[in-house]
Design a protein that fits this description.
By secondary structure, this protein is α+β, with helices and mostly antiparallel strands. The protein contains two helices and three strands, in the order αββαβ.
Length: 78
């Protein structure tokens, strides 16, 4: 099972995506990822485990990623 969250607009995309993933976390996913268009590139962050691990890997606990969302399948996966 998967859950996909998407956003396009002027607001901080990573914050909206992570909030959407928080709303899906009760489903028991064992991994998560986000892809954000930074203007020059697409930043992809993936993590296994709880959403807190993804937030840490994305730097959300310190400095959120900006830009517009792109589905992770549209960017080269790391």
């Amino acid at each position: 099972m998967c859950g996909i969250i998407g956003y396009t607009g002027e607001k901080q995309a990573a914050l909206i995506l992570l909030e959407g993933l928080e709303n899906l976390e009760y489903r028991g996913y064992d991994s998560a990822g986000i892809a954000v268009n930074t203007g020059d590139d697409i930043s992809v962050v993936k993590a296994q485990g709880r959403l807190a691990v993804l937030k840490e890997n994305a730097g959300y606990t310190h400095k959120p990623i900006g830009g517009n969302c792109r589905h992770p399948g549209s960017a080269e996966r790391s």
